[in-house]
Design a protein that fits this description.
4-stranded antiparallel beta sheet, 7-stranded mixed beta sheet, 0% helix, mainly beta, 115 residues, globular
Amino acid sequence: QVQLEESGGGLVQPGGSLRLSCAASGVRFSIGTMGWYRQTPGKERELVATISDGGYTDYADSAKGRFTISRNGAKNTVYLQMNSLKPEDTAVYYCKGRYRIYDYWGQGTQVTVSS
């Protein structure tokens, strides 16, 4: 069974940095496009960044210039380096990966930006 597990969330002060990781297990082949999404209470889940298996990246406007998405050589782990964090970045961050024809989601990791 395919599973995605996020790690790296936590509490950080405004202007600080965090690096999120998401590792896939239960896969026999490389995962396709992977991405990071975030959600706050009462709002819909929104795209933060995606990266294809070929390395093509796409970012939400709110993430451009501050966040960097990457993936490892085995292509089954994705990272999100977040710099210059703002209080409005506070959310639960979810990892998503496409394997075969299905999308899989992680359980989420809380990121809180506060002084």
